Amino acid sequence: MDIGFIGLGNMGFPMARRLTEAGHRLVAFDTRKEVLDTLVARGATAASSPKDVADQVETVMASLPSLQASLEVATGANGVIDGKRVKRFVDLSTVGSQMAVKIHSLLARRDIVQIDSPVSGGVGGAEKGTLAVMVSGPRGEFETIRTALDVIGKVFFIGDKPGAAQTMKLANNLLSATAIVATSEAMVMGVKAGLDPAVMIDVINAGSGMNTASRDKFPRSVLPRSFDFGFATGLMVKDVRLALEEMKQLGLSMEVADAVGRLWETVIGEEGAASDFTAAIKPIERRAGVIVGGKK
Ligand code: NAD
Hints:
The protein is α/β, with parallel strands linked by helices.
């Protein structure tokens, strides 16, 4: 099918590349010309703005780094909302349910259907097409884009309520964020007591402490001290804040979530929004006076 794709970053580029390789005709846009040129070299057509994308295709997907970026791309000046052909806007970004509902309402005024489709599984999952793809929106619209979403990963229909898939995604990411800081604390404790971090990770991964941080993030990006897993701290903190807001909105107060939120605020304060999220261990190491990994 003809697909517009806006936002060719860590996640967007590999998703767009897979769609092109699967035979879909892509019309793409990103504010960074270099990534757009790279996708064009792989068969996509370049557009000059979100509106230009939406002038050419009925289905526009987006993978953008902030709530503001999704709002602007969808409904701002020269946005998807002004496109001549567009019928549906599929947001693959994590924006939280409130922003999803806001974009949904603004687009509905122009008869454009907003479909939430946040994803989980990181850059590796985007490259391999193994992401968890969480979709909410009208069932019929979902069926129209299902084949394309199948190229990106394993697709789950969460419901027709706008924003439902965002709530699902935030529950997932709160767990992912918790795993990183909790694993960091456990590892720092062990290393402070003299344990070998590589042995610790092997034991945890063979035992009941195993989680996505111990399984993927520590072996690949923390123990080798490369801190290059491919998800920015700023994006992780965005998701944790969104999860806390979502809880507040529901009248909930959650103790683990609050503690995880405070830890991630420390990480962004000390490591910066552009750091890789695996750098979350650094403030914990600093306070303990140890380094986890780095040498044989
Ligand atoms: P990124 O910062 O790597 O990529 C964002 C891209 O959007 C960049 O290429 C940027 O140039 C482009 N962009 C920004 N503003 C734009 C605009 N106004 N118009 C057009 N292009 C614009 O971010 P990412 O890591 O790819 O994340 C994208 C979304 O996916 C976020 O919502 C994030 O939370 C979510 N996500 C990321 C991961 C991950 O592991 N990186 C995993 C799951 C979900």
